[in-house]
Design a protein that fits this description.
Elements: H1 3-42, H2 51-90
Helix pairs in contact: 1-2
Length: 91
């Protein structure tokens, strides 16, 4: 296994992690910003107010995008398993 192959696999892993995290993080950011804006306008300074809407938003995102996330991860894992014979031949 060469240095280039290891770096390529690591880069693919980082990219797939970023792709899978992006929907959850973006929705959580948007919901958090909206709740913070609402708290600033209404002057309600309850710290726990943001927890439940974020939890619901993440659950909705996982229900909507979970199938896509699973297919992306299975595809990445399948590609890794397909690389095993080629990496064994390189050694």
């Amino acid at each position: 296994m060469t240095d280039t192959a290891v770096l390529e696999i690591a880069l693919q892993a980082i990219l797939i992690a970023a792709k899978l995290c992006a929907p959850i993080l973006l929705v959580t950011l948007a919901v958090g910003f909206g709740i913070s804006l609402l708290q600033a306008v209404t002057q309600i300074q309850e710290v726990t107010l943001t927890f439940v809407p974020k939890l619901v938003a993440v659950a909705v995102v996982i229900m909507v995008a979970g199938n896509w996330m699973l297919h992306e991860m299975v595809g990445f894992t399948s590609d890794l398993y397909e690389l095993i014979p080629r990496m064994a031949d390189a050694v």
